[in-house]
Amino acid sequence: QVQLVESGGGLVQAGGSLRLSCAASGRTFSSYTMAWFRQAPGKEREFVGTISGSSFSTRYADSVKGRFTISRDNAKNTVYLQMNSLKPEDTAVYYCAQENRALAGRYDHWGQGTQVTVSS
User: Fold this and answer.
1) How crowded is residue 69: how many other Cβ atoms within 10 Å of its Cβ?
2) CB contact set of 1 (below 8 Å; sequence gap of 6+)
């Protein structure tokens, strides 16, 4: 069973930066596309971005493009979300997820989430 554990959330002022980490269990981490999602209070879960297993391909939501960067270290079974120029509207619980290898867009494993709060 894959376990995903996020860390790095916290309180930051607008314009600041945070880096989230997601540590994964399992020996085939590099085979999977990993994703970040977020959910703000009272809102539906929102896609943030993905990174392919080899890091060759990344994709971002328009709302974070140019400000957020996803990277991964397969030797450490960890995926990262570097968030710069943070805005109050980025406040949310951030989740990492592992994509199903056979079904793109389906995420079988999720972390517990880490809270990011951006003050104005």
Assistant:
1) 16
2) 25
Predicted local distance difference test score (pLDDT) of residue 4? 97
Q: Which two tokens stand for residue 26?
A: 């399992």
Taking the C-alpha atoms of residue 38 and residue 45, their distance in angstroms, rounded to an integer, is 6
> Is residue 98 a contact partner of residue 107, using CB atoms and an 8 Å limit?
yes
pLDDT tens digit sequence for 32-70: 999 999 999 999 999 999 999 998 999 999 999 999 999
Cα 28 to the chain's mean position, in Å?
19
Instruction: Return the amino acid letter for 114.
Output: T
Q: Please, which residues bridge with residue 11 across strands?
A: 117
Here the tokens at position 99 are 């994509």
